[in-house]
Amino acid sequence: MHQDKGSIGRLTREYEQTMERLQKCEIAVNELANLSKEWVPGSPPGLDNKFQELIDSLRVIEADLEEHSRFEEKEIMPFLSRNAGEIIERGLIQEHKQILESIRYLKKVAQATLVKPADRDERITQEIDVREAISSILKLVQSHCEAQSVIYRLAREVLPEEQQNVG
């Protein structure tokens, strides 16, 4: 199991590196667009170099993604096939618990403000606690919804319609 966690970590790092490289490509494309605005017959200075940089970056990204895809398809997919149900179930349950614990904490903080009058400094501290708790809950719920959206989208894409109903 430790190997699998390491593999998932590897895929996560590769994804982050690929996203950084793609963002650099986006910057290069924007630079190309700016250079092209000044285009006159013949190449503006630096345009060919920028295109070459873009091509070189795309080659690296392509090679990285080919290896990433090979590794994911040959080594990670069997792991996920064996454990996907448990990962999804336990992961979603864990997120539900975190969200509910955060809501209960926020309720407790909010109730504490009603129980005893607070001086100005205490009130400011309470308001900060409430804001931070609300922000935390929003992030947890948003992350949970994003995870569910991916799971449900994939289910719609790969399962026949008759298997998409619960029960």
Task: Provide key terms for this protein.
single chain; 167 residues; mainly alpha; 0% strand; flat
Can you walk me through this structure?
- This protein has helices at residues 2-37, 47-115, 120-158.
- The radius of gyration is 25 Å and the shape is flat.
- The mean pLDDT is 81.
- Helices cover 86% and strands 0% of the residues.
- The chain is built from three helices and no strands.
- It has one domain (2-163).
- It has 167 residues and is mostly helical.
- Helix 1 (2-37) packs across helix 2 (47-115) and helix 2 crosses helix 3.
- The longest helix is centred in the middle third of the chain and has 69 residues, at 47-115.
In brief:
The protein is mostly helical. It has helices at 2-37, 47-115, 120-158.
Query: Beta-strand level of the residues, as a percent range?
Result: under 5%
Helix content: over 70%
State the major sheet: none
Q: What class do helices, strands and sheet pairing give?
A: mainly alpha
The number of helices is 3
Kindly provide the radius of gyration, computed on alpha-carbon positions and rounded to a whole number of angstroms: 25 Å
Secondary structure blueprint with pairings:
Blueprint: H1 2-37, H2 47-115, H3 120-158
